[in-house]
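Protein Record: Sequence and Backbone Structure Tokens
======================================================

Structure line: whole-number tokens from a learned vocabulary of local backbone shapes, matched to residues.

Purpose: to set a sequence beside its fold so the mapping can be learned.

___
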Amino acid sequence: MKRQSHSLRLNDSSSIFGSLSEGADLMDGILAECEKHHIRSGLVTCIGSLKEVGYVLFKAVDGLPSGYGNEIEINQPVELVNATGFICEDENHELDLHLHGLVTEENGKVSAGHFVRGKNPTLITVEFTIIQSEELKASRTFDKDLGFKVINFSS
């Protein structure tokens, strides 16, 4: 029987602990667990292993950020040393996850960046914790002055 992704909410109603199963995408899997628990904003942190990785880094022009560069891929298994991000809603009020992290390859090479949704399948497992707040709203929208989507927090 294949192990399934799962999560549990603690009695305090603000903490969720869970695990993604083999093949579950890192971001889509966490967002599915958020939907299960009706989470619209919060903080997530996780560790685990990935079959491969897709991420981006910002690019700079004259020392100023000017958007994201090309997607970077690691087409081999990696350890997910740490990933941290914010659960929020996008401009269309769809659930979103802004997630950055560190991975290491078998040879010890460390890479880091902004994970791309749908490009990071779980190898063995990814264990995660979500801290949510029902009093806080997090909305990720494009800021034309900065040239990036940014998260704005409100109560």
